[in-house]
Structure formats: C-alpha cells, structure tokens
Amino acid sequence: MKLIKSLLMHSYLAFGIPILSDIVLPAFYQISDTSDIGESNPVHIKLGKVPQMLKEPALETKPFSIFNEKEFLYYIPNVARYYVSNGSEIIIETGFEDYNEVLLYLYSNCMAAILFQRSLIPFHVSGIFINTDKVLLFAAPSRTGKSTTAVMLQQKGYAPFTDDTATLKMEEDKCLAQASYPMIRLWQNSINNQTVVRMDDKHILRNDVQLNKYGFLFHDQFVHGKVEVAGLVFLEAEGSSIVTERIKPGLAMQNLGNNIYRKQWIKGMNKQILQFQLLTAIAHNVPAWKATRPKHEASYERFADAIESGIIHEILKSEVA
Known about the structure:
By secondary structure, the chain is an alpha+beta fold. It contains 6 helices and 20 strands.
C-alpha cells in the first residue's frame, strides 16, 4: 500500500491530542472533528519537503536523528525523513512509499518527539481497567511481556486501556494516564496462546517476515480520556517461580525512570527537571509492585492469575476499606 496524500483532512486523537492529517492513520482514534475536544493546538501531519537542518542549534546528535527542545529531524534509510517541530507539526518526506514502514516510525518516534516538545513524558507501559474508572499499568522493557500479560488479564474480563505507551501526569495528588491509541502489538507465539484477539484481524506492523509481530485494533473499546492510575506493576522475567511483591517509592521511582519511552532523549529535549519532578510525585502517590515470572517457561496464564489475586484484589479491597 502506497502513502498518498488525501484530498480530505483526517481528524484523530492520539495521547488525547487532536491530530489533523493529510494521510490515513489506521491506528489512531478517528473523530468527526476537533472543535469540541478543548485543545487549541492540534498536531498537523503533512507530506512535504523536510528541511536539511534545524533552525536552532542541536542539543543532541545521534546516528539517525538530530534534535533540540523544539525540533526533531529523523531519517530512516529507504523509508522516510521526518521533521517534528514545536509540538504541533510533523512533515514526512518519502520516495519509498511503503505505508506500513512509514507509519511505524510516525507512530513511535515522531509521536514521542511531539510529546516531549509539549512537555509530556511517555512511558513504556501497557494497561487494563480494574474497574470502570481506574487502571493498572504494566511497565517493562520490550520483549518482557507487557502486552501478553495485559491480554491474559483481558481474557479474565478486564478491559484494555493501552498497549506499549501512555503519558502520565499528576493532578491534585492523583496520577492520571492518557492512552496512546487503540492498537495491541503481539508476537506470533503470544497470539497462538490467547483468545482475545482474532488471527484474521492482525495487521502487519512492517514488511519484515523476520519481525513476527502484529498489531490488533480495539477502537470500539478505546477510552481516550485521562484515567486515574490505581497501581504500577514492574514486570521481570527471571528465576523459576512467580512472585508479586510491593516495592518502596525509591525503587518505584528508579524503575519508572528506566521505563520512560525514548528516555535517551530526555537531555536533548531539555526535560531533566520535568522528569525528576514527575517521577518523584508518581512514586510517592501511586502504589507499586514487582511481578516476576520464569523466563523460559510458558507461565503467562498463571502469571495473570497471580497478578489478579496478589495485586488487583488487594487494590480493590483497600478501596472498599
């Protein structure tokens, strides 16, 4: 499928931010218009010519990107060049025109740059609703099992909140999470061992047969508003048994900092102070746990049972008390 500019402007939400786009963005939450969202500064996504240099001096230079607090130049060989500026515009320049490849980097790195430019910090988390208005978030590096753990809990009746990323912020001593967009990403072996998503609904994330990872949309269940975080669970795969244990704020702060999405950009985006203030506030206001499962064992179903009984039930019981 080729990347073609549409004659119509498409309206979406991602991370609660209105998006006006020249191109169709299947993963984002589509809306009829942005007039009633209450956001005066939507992001505009355009096809066009990307500048060769930043307007202001770079604060960070990496192999495929160069950026400062308000500008982000990004280049993926044989895919596209991207320019993200002022938290309000993304320009895409491509001759390769492979839709899946171009969107993959738009959804991930370009949207992360938009968030940092808006002084919002994205986190590497998946999450589920534990009741109608609170969510439990799972934080872990890639391939640790965030998405699979969340899907196993969805099999037990918990509604999906987000997959892979969300922004967190504090308001009146409450931590509020904003989901990214309604797509779940699963490896093929995880797809084979669950009943939540259907094989026929999978989308190729990129044209790479070796990747073996697919996306599944859940627009009908997606909640795009801010939701209170009832708890954080840091997932680990090690040892030979399943263990859940409450952790102290200091360790929670450290673990949450390690799960900032594109945390290597913090300095170049000039967000060090924001990072410290946010991590400190969240760690001291949100209960946190470490949940460990065996690394080389098919234990996800038992892992979900342990999280439900040892964490979710504990949270719900404390709220009743």
